[in-house]
Amino acid sequence: GPTMAAAKIVILCLAALPSGIAALRTSRLAPTPSRVPIAPARAPAPCMLRTFYDVVVIGGGPVGVTAALRAASLGRTALLVDATPAQQYQFTGPTGLYSKALRDSALRIDVPVLRSMGISDVAIWAQLQEFISNILRKSGENNMGALEASRVPHLRGVGKLLPAEETDGVVVEVSFLQQRAKKQSILINANNVVLATGSRAVQLSALEGWYGLPISGHPRVFDSDSIKGLSFLPRSVVIIGGGIIAVEFARIFAALAAEVTLVIRAGDLPSSLARVGIDRAIGFVLQADLQEAGVQIAFETEVVDCAFAREQPTQYVSRRAGGAAAGSD
């Protein structure tokens, strides 16, 4: 709303802290989801649940869905266990697909033009959220249809590995998420288990206590998983990290007309990306592309401290080594 018009957002490893102080110290510190076939108009019903499977896949993201479909295509019996929360579209992955949906939605909206027409940021963000929701829903429906077409059953619950006392295989206990389920859990035997549960984002110790904390009515500090909880269109974003995810979100928010600052510890972006196997030549192209898009890159810098600037709630201040301070409005 109007109070958010000049708000500052800081994303650290995709974390955000508008209206606060982020102290920065100069330091000298030397995957696209696989395509899944769209279901036919009338997909065959999934097979009845068994007590034994060749493969049990735990995790309903892009990797889990692809693994289950691959097993079925090889003639193996497969079961998919997915713990997607009830409020989220099933088989859309925890984070990766959200960033792609946000990216594609950002390309469909010209924020400066809409603002010049007098359309509020609240309305623009609502339109973005509708685009994102439609993309996620369609992807989830396609994945669901592909699983049904391949006759791969799925359970919405949490899988837990148990010791197999009388078999060489694996026993998986599936606890159901639905509170009204007739059974709280069941046991499934399998020859193999594929763990496709993904990973968790690292949260910076310098921002401990800030993640998810509402400031002026909205959480402002996010990691690369919780960024889905962003509830308004940011005017400025600071992204901490020099990996692929950081580069992706920097480009996305730049496309949404936000002032973006990318903070990395390396001396250049190629050096940071080289640690994840990105060729240096490609790294220089990405660095030039970010700068051309207006992204400011702070090299050899890391976050060491932050505090809420109560006297200037729409600003954050960056303090560098030697006591010098740099302000941002």
UniProtKB/TrEMBL annotation:
GO-annotated molecular function: dihydrolipoyl dehydrogenase (NADH) activity; flavin adenine dinucleotide binding
PANTHER family per the UniProt record, alphabetical: DIHYDROLIPOYL DEHYDROGENASE, MITOCHONDRIAL, DISULFIDE OXIDOREDUCTASE
Domain of life, per lineage: Eukaryota
Signal peptide boundaries: 1-23
Protein name: FAD/NAD(P)-binding domain-containing protein
Coiled coil: none
Stored Gene3D superfamilies: FAD/NAD(P)-binding domain
A single GO BP: 2-oxoglutarate metabolic process
Keywords: Signal
Residue stretches making up the FAD/NAD(P)-binding domain: 53-305
Organism: Haptolina brevifila
Keyword Nuclease part of the UniProt annotation: no
Family, similarity comment: Belongs to the class-I pyridine nucleotide-disulfide oxidoreductase family.
